[in-house]
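DM from R.C. (forwarded with permission)

"hey, sorry to bug you on a friday — could you get me a structure for this? deadline for the figure draft is monday and I only need the backbone to look sensible"
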Amino acid sequence: MAHDPAGSAAAFAELGRIKLGETDLNGVLDRVADLARRILPGAAEVSITLVRDGAAYTPAHTGGTALRLDESQYEQDGGPCLEAAAAKSTVHVPDTAADDRWSGWPARAAASGIGSILSVGLPIVENVSGALNIYGTGPRAFDEEAIALAQTFVRYAAVALANAHLYDTTASLAQHMQAAMENRAVIEQAKGIIMGERRCSADEAFAILTKVSQDTNRKLREVAAALVERTQRG
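My reply, with the result:
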């Protein structure tokens, strides 16, 4: 498959146009994998490896063979995608049938119909690393031009993924903060009800709520919400 410069430029532009409010991190990962398969010469299947807290997994892939070969690397803790992710480097396996690295893992790829592999390190954020894994059906599917294009593609993809990760983290934090504020509001309401009924202080009212929570093995918010609801019904 010849390199199509116009197609590459369009793919890079598409990465830059991703609207984070309309998708999540997994959506961006899926789009990156699909774009890579479409524009990278020699790519039959593509996957993305992410490594977080020492655990590797494949959140996006374009075919079952890529997923199976990724997971077999994770099982034996060795392979081109893990090496590329760890070193933030490019790992090339030109001919899987003639490569004996990683305890013979390339032979497993050859038996699965994959003749060559290219894994390019994909830095995302400080505590998350990864790799773009490109699987070719024949040996020597990736020449120097294809390798250079894959490395350029990864630089664009890394920016999109870092932005998506930040957006995802920020949105999650905002949700937690909103939930915390709602929890606090209902607890304050319940304290007010107890203070009014028992003519006690705020600290005493909170102690009463806490004791009920412990005695009934329910969360403090659930106890508070039940009291507020019961008062509103009464």
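R.C.: lifesaver. The CA atoms of residues 149 and 194 lie 67 Å apart.
me: no worries. The chain is about 60% helix and 15% strand.
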